[in-house]
């Protein structure tokens, strides 16, 4: 296993700088700035790719992967940046590695491959000096008994990436950065051009959007943001801690993607009405409904998530009737005027902020989640009486979890009908309204404004 046209370089005496014969034992536990973060990122990447483990849980500072718990806040941020860059660009990184190797890595060398992917992500897509990335990768390889024999290969391959970076990136520039199964599915649903646009859009991290209680234009001015067609305030190139922003301590606004802010607005005037928010945590939509004047019952089946929701509402100075209950078992004594069901889904529309999603989910997950959503929607429709409204939504890009499932429910529910959403009511977002009057956004929409999450929503009336 050697590099294309690089066999002699792979055997260079300088391929492992700073390492002298017999020095491995002395350096084995020597501290090296950034190395622990690199090791953590490599381990977590392996869990995402090989074990389909969700990234967010592993990055939790208190309960996440053991490799990240003892890191400093700065190193945890570095780990997140490395992983996000690696996962966003994974097909291109893997293609570059394949170009440079004349034979594939051994099938069992998974940790070596993940090491190379993290290092390449730093060199190609992050502002990390090449020599630092190479040095840390070689050190990391030498400290791992599985990879020690590949240290010279790691050095030679990464040095070549540094020398040929622009040419290598140009070579893979048109390669879509999505797993094959997902790109094929998007192509079948949206067409090739739209699928490629979605793939390209996910390369850009999601912006930070805020939903404000009152006067979006005022808060956009105060926070150097802009008001989107959804009514959200988008921050302009913000870097820093959200709690330091003006208005956070006063509960004047909360973080919520612009697309996620749409479903609550579909109810129209709900002042004084009794509204249930199912699957309510973390509470962004609950807060919207309260701000719109509704009497809100927030239902959540996870105690920890319900506690988080209550904390968020407390910061905002808002109150709701918070109920811990299994959603399918929730049966209130009195029917509601309206119900919002933002259902659990594959989350494929959120890959700009969760780039692990296409790599941890698959077609079987979509089918399974669609079945759950159907059960939840059918139950939600029993919670409103005649004249009641149910808004169903989720952040999946797949019609199996949206349009197709809703059509199936409506087909055998004679007391329910779809209320069409009017494009005229959503200026500058007309393309998000489908011919059947449902909401369907993709990450490729509003490109000049910085994009949106993929979202689906529809309005159903009980006759």
Features:
globular, 463 residues, alpha/beta, 42% helix, 20 helices, four-stranded antiparallel β-sheet
Task: Give a summary of the structure in a few sentences.
The chain has 463 residues and is α/β, with parallel strands linked by helices. It has helices at 7-10, 24-27, 35-51, 55-58, 66-69, 73-88, 90-100, 110-125, 130-143, 151-163, 165-171, 180-190, 192-201, 216-222, 262-265, 284-291, 303-316, 357-360, 363-380, 403-411, and strands spanning 209-212, 225-227, 233-235, 253-255, 274-278, 295-300, 321-324, 336-342, 384-394, 416-419, 439-441, 455-462.
Notes on the structure:
- The chain has 463 residues and is α/β, with parallel strands linked by helices.
- It has helices at residues 7-10, 24-27, 35-51, 55-58, 66-69, 73-88, 90-100, 110-125, 130-143, 151-163, 165-171, 180-190, 192-201, 216-222, 262-265, 284-291, 303-316, 357-360, 363-380, 403-411, and strands at 209-212, 225-227, 233-235, 253-255, 274-278, 295-300, 321-324, 336-342, 384-394, 416-419, 439-441, 455-462.
- The N and C termini lie far apart (68 Å).
- The relative contact order is 0.09.
């Amino acid at each position: 296993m050697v590099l294309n046209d690089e066999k002699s370089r792979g055997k260079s005496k300088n391929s492992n700088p700073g390492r002298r014969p017999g020095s491995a034992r002395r350096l084995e536990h020597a501290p090296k700035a950034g190395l622990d973060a690199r090791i953590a990122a490599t381990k977590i990447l392996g869990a995402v790719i090989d074990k389909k483990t969700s990234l967010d849980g592993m990055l939790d500072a208190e309960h996440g992967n053991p490799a990240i718990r003892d890191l400093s806040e700065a190193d945890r941020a570095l780990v997140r940046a490395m992983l996000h860059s690696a996962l966003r660009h994974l097909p291109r990184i893997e293609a570059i590695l394949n170009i440079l190797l004349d034979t594939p890595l051994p099938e069992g060398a998974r940790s070596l491959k993940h090491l190379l992917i993290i290092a390449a992500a730093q060199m190609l897509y992050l502002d990390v000096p090449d020599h630092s990335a190479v040095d840390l990768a070689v050190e990391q390889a030498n400290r791992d008994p599985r990879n020690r024999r590949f240290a010279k290969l790691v050095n030679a391959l990464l040095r070549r990436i540094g020398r040929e970076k622009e040419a290598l990136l140009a070579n893979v520039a048109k390669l879509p950065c999505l797993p094959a199964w997902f790109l094929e599915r998007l192509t079948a649903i949206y067409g090739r051009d739209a699928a490629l646009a979605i793939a390209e859009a996910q390369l850009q991290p999601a912006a930070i959007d805020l939903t404000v209680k009152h006067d979006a234009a005022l808060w956009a001015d105060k926070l150097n943001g802009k008001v989107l067609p959804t009514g959200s305030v988008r921050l302009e190139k913000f870097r820093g801690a959200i709690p330091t922003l003006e208005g956070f301590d006063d509960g004047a606004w909360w973080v919520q993607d612009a697309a996620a802010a749409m479903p609550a607005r579909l109810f129209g005037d709900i002042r004084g009405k009794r509204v249930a928010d199912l699957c309510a945590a973390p509470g962004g939509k609950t807060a919207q409904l309260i701000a719109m004047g509704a009497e809100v019952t927030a239902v959540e089946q996870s105690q920890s998530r319900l506690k988080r929701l209550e904390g968020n509402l407390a910061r905002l100075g808002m109150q709701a009737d918070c109920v811990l209950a299994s959603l399918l078992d929730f049966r209130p004594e009195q029917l509601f005027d309206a119900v919002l069901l933002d259902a659990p889904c594959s989350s494929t529309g959120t890959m700009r902020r969760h780039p692990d999603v296409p790599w941890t989910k698959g077609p079987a997950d979509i089918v399974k989640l669609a079945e759950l959503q159907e059960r939840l929607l059918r139950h939600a429709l029993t919670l409103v009486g005649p004249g009641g409204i149910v808004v169903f939504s989720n952040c999946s890009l797949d019609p199996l979890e949206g349009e197709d499932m809703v059509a199936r429910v409506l087909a055998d529910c004679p007391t329910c009908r779809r209320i069409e959403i009017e494009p005229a009511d959503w200026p500058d977002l007309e393309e998000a309204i489908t011919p059947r009057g449902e909401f369907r956004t993709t990450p490729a929409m509003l490109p000049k404004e910085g994009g949106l999450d993929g979202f689906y929503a529809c309005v159903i009336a009980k006759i």
